Fold this sequence. Notes:
It is built from seven helices and no strands.
Amino acid sequence: PPAPPPPGDGAPPPPPTNDLDWDRARELATRWYAPLLEKESWTAALYLLVGMITAVAFFAGLVVFGALVFGLLFVAVGIFLIRPFFTAAEHLARIERSMARWVDVDIDPRPVAPMSGLGLRALSDAERWRHVGFILLNVLIGTLIGNIGLLGFVIVQQTVLNGGLFGTGFDPNPFQGFFIVFGLVVAAAALGAAPRIAVFVAGFKAQITQWFLGIDELSEARARVDTLSTQRDDILDAVAVERRRIERNLHDGVQQQLVAIGLDLGMAEQQLERDPDR
């Protein structure tokens, strides 16, 4: 092969390489911000936002109603409000279970004993008190989890609308420009992370609601085992009863008839040689 040309003989220099792959960067950006276009992300954010509002509203309403009921017990008027109080708590719990369907979590309600009359039986029903306890605790759970789930959107809102995360409020600050640029970078990252955080936290909140208001799988399994054990005992008792009936019928009916036939055959055998006609 011919020898390579010596340097400096007029050969064109190699083309400059571009270290930044714009196609790759565009692909990564599209993938990072793709959840912003998904319905699931905004549904989860709405679930957390509405959950914070309902948590505070339900807590305030139930506390006021409960104070009215138990305050009027001293004049015997509150007895007539016991049933409406637990009915209201049940309806509020039903609303929370319905909201969990927004994030594709179906919660089957726990079985509660029906109320009759003044509803005094509800005072000893642990499941109805569970409704009340959830509404009271949800004011902390709902607001705390909601704020965590919406933190990414809050960062973006604070950066874009309120002048950055580290706004100082006065112009002579020499680092004001750096803080603004840094805030915009954080907001750009948070804008892609916000829907992911909202979806994860919304699912977590729905699972907590299911633990409080949904059917306990362990208790349901135990109840199922108790039911099967009871059914097995009933079947064994029915088999024993049927066996005794068959034994009694055999003893009183077929067995006596066979014994009588055997006696008749024995007497006939004795008379066979002496008196065949008989």
